[in-house]
Specification:
644 residues, alpha+beta, Flavocytochrome C3, Chain A, domain 1, Methane Monooxygenase Hydroxylase, Chain G, domain 1, five-stranded antiparallel beta sheet, 19 strands, Succ_DH/fumarate_Rdtase_cat_sf, flavoprotein
């Protein structure tokens, strides 16, 4: 049975009551415990720094050469918090409600409310660290609007918010490294989880420079390793982002929840060809002042595609500002899933723009005329520069071309209210877990969740677990479980290195990405998903029979690294398809064509699918078992989402 361990009592009192009821570890005993933190992005760095400040011994692991290179650094637009500085009607409950609604009523109420409640503290913490948030003329922190909300609650540092927040967390982490409370292992990749008597007690890693397989022990393990969007090959994620740590933990008994929930971001630089390895995000903040449009007719679009017309040649009356037309209340600030599906609809109608016809315009002419180019440059300058460097087009003079792309994954490792997985002692934080965003994440909420989990949740909840262990003895690093797991990792590495086929790992990854995008992307059908499952199974056989992994283990070997990650993506991709097939409804980013309203919006089936799907691994090439966490809504009414 899945026990979410949500505290009893009124929603607004659950977290405060729970913090008081949890057991504490006194300061003298904290230094007797060791906690392993895998991943050093916002969730991992904030957790490691906070736990070390409390007195715990912490080991951090990342595959980059520095925690500063974590993918959190790529977040652009901002971080939400219910401060109500604008005095425009915001509140903790409104942020909670917007997040529940934005996730299409597929998230756990208690976790989402805690996120909204803690959000107000995150900003104060980051300001104290020196994060240079934008400020108004009077000196107060500035806010801007984001999709899915009618209030301005997003704090930002130009288009570099993730970078600045990570530098704040990184500085606090470095302080603890210097004090000796944190031992940092860079260029180390977690390849398996060690369990003793059913509980997480360590990890097995590979030194990515020397190839050495190492064992590391700890009283608890925190996974802070981000999402799995790179299963699609082309995404806005850094190329190194992967699911391996989470997936190997899943194969040891951690349930994987809602894997089919993928967020497609509406404002990305469009694909230009097969040569690309990743896509580039254009921040959702641009939708504050940019207007999304396409020509009203296919004929005009075709002329644009052929270069016979420039965007400025299209008269105002011949432009379709389709988001403003269809959703007058929210306009261009509808949630990401809604904006993405509508952009796809325009392209499918033949009204796309650019040489490929697979794009829509994001136009700033009206904003520049209203505010002036200097003001627009102050707000979005680095984003405009990035667009210019990639496309060689000046967005101050002509509209940006954008199109949806895979960005974030709402699914992840199942966790209870304490962020503990189904394996005692193993926790999952940030994008690595499933808990806060339901079927669609609102913009500027990823940074909020990562820092909430790291700074304000895990320091309490991991202490409750450690206090109940009953002893303070170090973990026995000579326990047979460490040697057994290490040997399994070595065998898997050797199996990969023995592959001597004709295909590169990237060949297989690209094929997988095409299958996932085509059949498990923005639109899904039972027929397409069934076909995808068969194609992935065939591709998995091709991987293990005809892929070639170059080099040896005892060296820097990127071919080996990629092979292990793609092997995990193949297994995950099949589970994503199974989950999408099981959920015979549309909700948020999961859009089943068989389940839509007359107006083409997502149509939920609350009677049959108001649950979290949590999948249990039962063995290689065996069907996973579905467990259901029923979602209970006591504080919001389940209604059809409307942004009109």
């Amino acid at each position: 049975m899945l026990d979410s361990r949500v505290p009893a009592g009124p929603l607004a009192e659950k977290w405060s009551k729970h913090k008081f009821e949890m057991k504490l570890v006194n300061p003298a005993n904290k230094r007797k415990f060791t906690i392993i933190v895998v991943g050093t992005g916002l969730a991992g760095a904030s957790a490691a720094a906070s736990l070390a400040e409390l007195g715990y011994n912490v080991k951090t692991f990342c595959y980059q050469d520095s925690p500063r290179r974590a993918h959190s650094i790529a977040a652009q637009g901002g971080i939400n918090a219910a401060k109500n500085y604008q005095n425009d009607g915001d509140s903790v409950f409104r942020l909670f409600y917007d997040t529940i609604k934005g996730g299409d009523y597929r998230a756990r109420e208690a976790n989402v409310y805690r996120l909204a409640e803690v959000s107000v503290n995150i900003i104060d913490q980051c300001v104290a660290q020196g994060v240079p948030f934008a400020r108004e003329y009077g000196g107060l922190l500035d806010n801007r609007s984001f999709g899915g909300a009618q209030v301005s609650r997003t704090f930002y540092a130009r288009g570099q918010t993730g970078q600045q927040l990570l530098l704040g967390a990184y500085s606090t982490l470095n302080r603890q490294i210097r004090k000796g409370k944190v031992k940092s292992y860079t260029r180390h990749e977690m390849l398996d989880l060690v369990k003793i008597d059913g509980e997480a007690r360590g990890i097995i890693t590979r030194d990515m420079v020397t190839g050495k397989i190492e064992s590391h022990e700890g009283h608890a393990v925190l996974l802070c390793t981000g999402g799995y969007g790179n299963v699609f090959f082309l995404s806005t994620n850094a190329m190194g982002c992967n699911v391996t740590a989470a997936w190997r933990a899943h194969k040891r008994g951690a349930f994987f929840a809602n894997p089919c929930y993928t967020q497609i971001h509406p404002t990305c630089i469009p694909v230009t060809g097969d040569h690309q390895s990743k896509l580039t995000l254009m921040s959702e903040s641009l939708r504050n002042d940019g207007r999304v449009w396409v020509p009203k007719t296919v004929e005009l679009s075709q002329k644009l595609q052929k270069g016979e017309l420039n965007p400025s040649d299209i008269k105002e009356d011949d432009r379709d500002y389709f988001l403003e037309r269809k959703y007058p209340s929210f306009g261009n600030l509808v949630p990401r899933d809604v904006a993405s599906r509508n952009a796809k609809e325009m392209v499918d109608e033949g009204r796309g723009v650019g040489k490929t016809g697979i794009a829509v315009f994001l136009d700033f002419a009206e904003a520049i005329g209203r505010l002036g180019e200097d003001t627009v440059r102050e707000k979005y300058g680095n984003l405009f520069d990035m667009y210019y460097q990639i496309t060689d087009e000046n967005p101050y003079k002509q509209p940006m071309r954008i199109y949806p792309a895979v960005h974030y994954t709402m699914g992840g490792v199942w966790v209870d209210y304490n962020l503990m997985t189904t394996i005692p002692g193993l926790y999952a934080l940030g994008e690595c877990n499933f808990s806060d965003h339901g079927a669609n994440r609102l913009g500027a909420s990823a940074l909020m969740q990562g820092l909430s989990d790291g700074y304000f949740v895990i320091p309490f909840t991991v202490g409750d677990y450690l206090a109940k262990l009953g002893n303070f003895k170090p973990i026995d690093k000579n326990h047979p479980a460490f040697e057994e797991t290490r040997k399994e990792v070595e065998n898997n590495v050797n199996r990969l290195l023995s592959l001597n086929g004709s295909k590169t790992v990237d060949d297989i990854h690209k094929k997988l990405g095409h299958i996932m995008w085509e059949y498990c992307g923005m639109a899904r059908t039972a027929e397409g998903l069934t076909k995808a499952k068969g194609l992935i199974q065939e591709l998995k056989k091709e991987f293990w029979s005809d892929v070639r992994v170059l080099g040896e283990n005892e060296e820097l070997n990127m071919s080996l690294e990629k092979a292990g990650r793609v092997a995990d993506f193949l297994e995950l991709g099949e589970l994503m398809v199974d989950d999408a097939l099981n959920r015979n409804e549309s909700c948020g980013g999961h859009f089943r064509l068989e389940s839509q309203t007359e107006e083409g919006e997502a149509k939920r089936d609350d009677e049959n699918y108001t649950y979290v799907s949590a999948w249990e691994f039962k063995g290689d090439n065996q069907a996973e078992v579905l467990h259901k966490e029923e979602l209970v809504f006591e504080n919001v009414k389940l209604t059809q989402r409307s942004y009109k």
